[in-house]
Amino acid sequence: MAGLGAQSAPSPFTQQPDLADRYGIIIPRPPDTHKDKTTNPKVGAMDAILLQILNGLDKGSAYALIALGLTLIFGTLGVVNFAHGALFMIGAFCAVTLQRLLNLSFETIDETQTDFLGNALKVKTPYVEAWFGPQMGGTIIDWAVPLAILFAVPIMVFVGYAMERGLIKHFYKRPHADQILVTFGLAIVLQEVIKYFYGANPIQTPAPEALSGIVNVGAIIGMDIVYPVWRIVYFFFSLLVIGGIFSFLQFTTFGMVVRAGMADRETVGLLGINIDKRFTVMFGIAAAVAGLAGVMYTPINSPNYHMGMDFLVLSFVVVVVGGMGSLPGAVLAGFLLGILESFASMNEIKSIIPGIDQIIIYVVAIIILLTRPRGLMGRKGVMED
Amino acid sequence: MSNSNFTRRGMLKTSAVAGAGVALPTIFTASSVAAYTNEPTGSSVTLGFNVPQTGPYADEGADELRAYQLAVEHLNGEGDGGMLNTFSSKELQGNGILGKKVEFVTGDTQTKSDAARASAKSMIEKDGAVMITGGSSSGVAIAVQGLCQEAGVIFMAGLTHSNDTTGKDKKANGFRHFFNGYMSAAALAPVLKNLYGTDRNAYHLTADYTWGWTQEESIAAATEAMGWNTVNKVRTPLASTDFSSYIAPVLNSGADVLVLNHYGGNMVNSLTNAVQFGLREKVVNGKNFEIVVPLYSRLMAKGAGANVKGIHGSTNWHWSLQDDASKAFVKSFGTKYGFPPSQAAHTVYCQTLLYADAATRAGTFNPCGIGEALEGFEFDGLGNGKTLYRAGDHQCFKDVLVVRGKENPTSEFDLLEVVEVTPAAQVTYPIDHPMFAGGALGSCNAG
After folding, report:
1. What is the SS3 assignment for B296?
2. Contact status of A226 with chain B (Cβ, < 8 Å)
3. Transmembrane stretches, by residue range (chain B) (predicted)?
């Protein structure tokens, strides 16, 4: 290309007197950022496939958790909740809020340094560090995201409860279209509220330092597959939450009543059980599941107010592919679509079918719905009236 | 024998000259009745600030709006005058523009082309805006520029970095102060060569829209010219949030440099993912693996946190510059708002001053008069050193900053450090450069 690279460039990082004079810049030398020299990451085809499977499981974890919550709400209350993505987003912002709370600081004026306007620099010290000492305080701030789990659960249960009692219960007897419209509207309101308080740009919420590196997961099978530690943590965390929900429904009396209510609401009601109250609790639990998925997702991608919408549509496809109302179906479809999406992003696949990474989920949804109209594990009679 | 010169060619020439002579007064005379769109008749003039107030770039839009308000204050003689005091042209006296008080209306682009066009149209038709400025995305800037050309008002582009804005989509009524993809590449290439050598294999991840394409084309050409090999160019959907499945193939591609042609949320996420996957700690082909982000924004760098440390990119302007103009602007902005301005704020402030100055020099708000005053205008004292508004494509040519994520930030604003100021001459290209080919300025439209 004409022009580019053709000129003989002045040597960078050597002081250019005229520029230094004009902009007052002392050009620094770059430091070596590669302190940890690890192995050559060139990996073979097999490793690449395993890497994409890991990626898929990781993406699938988020899809599965959101879809699980959606299905819980649909299965119990019969409501199609388009505000579920917003609950995921609120969960993420619980982590942001806790991080900010832990970073609440008092200011001391340091006369020896100046700020960007040339005034004496105000040095901020977090209260947590002042109370517990710099080391302990620093560790608490570092572990803000995992700590946010404890912070998020009560908040999310409350948000879910308030949402159900305050708005959604008025729409039980209305058509699904009305439910979709009102919950979608609610999602937009929640999104704008978050944007008002936290701004539109993504907010950095890092994982604790101990969990933020990479690990060679292939070492066990003699391969060289490095993967971020936090993403592995996320996968196991989602398994734990999914396992917890299934156990709760399977092995507790409360869960048994809820399952009975899902199967035949009227009969359970005739037995003198207040099934509505239990379903409201389930809505709170579903909100908490979405919230936890959001909390733990923050170190993977910096949260912004729009993140819920990004997941919402995909999660609905997951629910439909899994089968409306089927909890195992939602989880299975979540992981399946996550893995397929990852494979579709491989250059080898994209060179055969360009753009497949953007449509794979919908193509699979079409194929599955054509061959199994109720989805992978859908039950007869759900959404068919 | 006749001495008459009455030939067909002579007749055509005479008619053309006469025709132009007849047409001229109606274009350039401000006093003729409604000689141009929204001719200000009262004691004030209205400017239209079209910025993203909602949507993913709302924070940049908010910063642009702050700078616009500051510029209006300074034009009307309020505040400390900011860069009016350092601007090389001394036409502006702090008494508005041409003696008319500056007022403004705002529109919300939502970072969507159709919404941006609708809000610009409304400001022109309902509010009587005589100039439209703003934007934080190239898709929007190109759409609004086209609308302003049709409507007969000047468009002073805000943050738009695609080559196409002053390339194939350039318009006579549109002007860009911000730099572009080519300039980023031309400024970065020598620095990258110096840092990482000439034997490198680059892998590109690119946002799949006009800005991404031109940025990728520019940086790939610049790095190939210095001997780098381009391993792959992968387009990622603009709506992508998790880039892990795009990062994973980089590992077995043999590449030792990853170029992220991403902006905004895409940049934050792709960079975060790349760092998560340990790319920065790798050694490939015996060399340290490196990541490059051609277009940096401090507001966005904040979202990526510590991940930007040591990563190189380019920027139009940075608040840490120590020239008198930058210092005056930072002081003025910082005193009013409590934090330093972003590059988006800087470029729109400059654009407002440049418009006001051009109107004053032209003695009219007529877009054609202002266009003529801006074309080929050379100035200094706005924070980028000597700058030329090139007549042929309405692009500003000035020094470009190469920056790097700072290792030890001293404050939440102190994220980038300037490592090189690339002289304007090094980023200048011919008007008919292939990356800017196609399209024509056309002639100015006064409505």
Report:
1. coil
2. yes
3. none
